[in-house]
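Lecture 7 notes: from sequence to structure.

We start with a single chain of 423 residues. Read the sequence below before looking at the structure.
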Amino acid sequence: MQTNAALDDEIGDFLGGRQSVIRDPYPLYKRIRDAGPVYWYKGNVPFVARYRDTTALFSKHEDFQTFRSRERFGLDRLDETDRARVADIGTFEEVQLNQTNGQLHRRIRSVAQRVFPSGKFTEMRPAVRVAVNQLLDEAARDDVVDLMQFAYRLPLTVVTAFFGLPSADIDKLKLWGDAIATVKPFVEGGLPVEAIRAAHGAVGNTQDYVNGMIAESRRNPGANGFMDALLAAESGDKLDANELAGLISLLIYASHESSTNMLGNGIHSLLSHRDQWEALKSDPSLAPKAVMETLRYNAPVQMMTRRAAIDTQVDGVDIPQGAEAIILYGAANRDEREYDDPDRLDITRSKMANVSFGYGIHVCIGAALARLEGQTAFELLSQRFPDARLADEAAEPEWKPHPLFRGLRRLPVRLGADRGPIE
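Now the structure, written as tokens:
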């Protein structure tokens, strides 16, 4: 397993959230792709960065299983109380759809797909347009606005409406989600103890909130059809109480974390590439393609992990049982073997398929809703505020120091004249 000390150092900086690499990880990704179909970070962690190897690995879901090691918390340095907190966080993660395998995953996903079918999102299109227009109305009150506020409020506005939750709960759901996201990196350990404790509190708050939702739905059947359908699945060999709570927690959390960064990254990409913004302004029917291309260009989720359940291979490279592979979505989406001129943003390119929402049986179940939110936001923003510009086009954007979730801290935009709501 040949390694490269300089490359290892740069990967370590990336995993540690250093702005010098987080700001633009794509040159690093190319070096990892060029190092082979598999690069062994520090000789023991296989990194997969090419598109076809990524999709092939995800297709072998029995050989490569979803896994999130608790070692990332740096257990050896924690006292007994904090280790117990880590155990609680791990238990919370293990019953969620994106952390299950085999029959358990098939059973939970089957329920989720029946209750949360893609066709349901088509019905939500008018409600999403209303939400986007209302949030843009609020944004238009200021000359310069931080559109990351729009980016996080839109998905949570939609999901709270879907679940029949009070819009007043949006901010606390965001606060809890951010705390949980902080402890999501896969490797390196050394997470700040304060972050572990904050995540533990957020997990407890989320569980209490979801259990309250379930109790309220039982007391008032018929108040929310989606909740009624989920509760109907809580029997026999379908979903038990913990699995039900885990599914709802994931749907609330995942429906806004990735979507927020998808929106922020996408708006920033379009506004910092004026030719693409002008193309969208001129032809709003390009909005679906703009979503797919900005997802490819700057994915909201940059990596995922899988553990080899058996001795297996990736593109002829042996992967021993138990190895925890890191799959770099952001690198696969810029693979020159798959895309022409991959570092160029082009909302008219022919191939836009990407792995930003995963691939195979673990593809994000809310991907269709996220794309709908993005299409509506890009269309209405470009038509209502055609003169929108980054407030300081020369300023270096500040990215959150998180190797897994790629998103901006702030997105200050000078909106310009408002042409008014578009039905």
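The CA atoms of residues 50 and 332 lie 5 Å apart. Keep this in mind for problem set 3.
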